[in-house]
Amino acid sequence: AARVARAAVRGPGRTADGHPIALLANVGGPADAVSAAALDLEGVGLFRTEFLFLDRAEAPSMEEQRRVYRRVLEPLAGRKVVVRTLDAGADKPVPYACPDPEDNPALGVRGLRTSWRRPELLHDQLEALALAAGDTGTSPWVMAPMVATAAEAADFAEVARSHGIAKVGVMIEVPAAALRAASVLAAVDFVSLGTNDLAQYTFAADRQLGELAALLDPWQPALLDLIAATARAGQEAGKPVGVCGEAASDPLLALVLAGLGIESLSMAAVSVPDVRAALAERTIEQCREIAAAALAAESAVEAREAAARF
Ligand code: PEP
Ligand code: MG
């Protein structure tokens, strides 16, 4: 019966009373983009560009990048696509972009920070994206990973706009950026919460250590507080706040995120139907009540139980 109900819900993500929550896919390259384009979803909320840079001695040329970006943008033409600039370091090692072995790579020169030493890597990528956008007549949104301060967001926005990128954003995956979300948002057009890294840095718990999974649970109230603060800042600024970490793929948590004011959820494409079905069963006001109950809980287990009681 659940499968029948799920199949019956189609089209753009929305709550029972029609409040829109865009349902987007996380993709890692052209093959993913082609399969996402064949599905009932509104676009791509996170295109991880790392695959192009991994396992090689030097960065791909601007022309090579342009060709690959074109193959991602083309099948999704007419839909939203959010491209993330190179997120090198820690769990995504790219030796030519990162410094020699660091004692704490997760806390090191990674993500946007790699552009401080190798600014040409970021320039080439942004130029390749702008060219591919022109080639395909599309207008991708572009965001930077691992931004900690509003000044970094402003610097990135200036560089991205100088390449002609129209919609510039940053990921919120460092607690400092979530705490100062209003200032970060003042510098950009949108933000996207990366809940995988945001959990890692909030709980000082390596995201790759299974032993610490309970701390990394996206239902942890401290993580929900940071998401709520960021969503509130987005509503006050009138700018979109999305979620593109694993948290977005949990149908019950999706209700909480919608209730907190998150406007788009990006996840593995296979998770979209269940999240769509969950949203379709609740009004936005019910989502707000579920979110309030989760935020009032004292632990991840309690937060999940509180939300499930509705
Ligand atoms: C995240 O950190 O939540 C995220 C979406 O990015 P990645 O998993 O690629 O670090
Ligand atoms: Mg991340």
TrEMBL record:
Protein family per UniProt: Belongs to the PEP-utilizing enzyme family.
GO cellular component: cytoplasm
EC assignment: 2.7.3.9
Keywords of the record: Cytoplasm, Kinase, Magnesium, Metal-binding, Phosphotransferase system, Pyruvate, Sugar transport, Transferase, Transport
Name assigned to this protein: Phosphoenolpyruvate-protein phosphotransferase
GO molecular function ontology, one term from the record: metal ion binding
Catalytic activity: L-histidyl-[protein] + phosphoenolpyruvate = N(pros)-phospho-L-histidyl-[protein] + pyruvate
Organism lineage: Bacteria, Bacillati, Actinomycetota, Actinomycetes, Pseudonocardiales
Top EC category: transferase
Cofactor needs: Mg(2+)
Range within the parent protein: 236 to 545 of 545
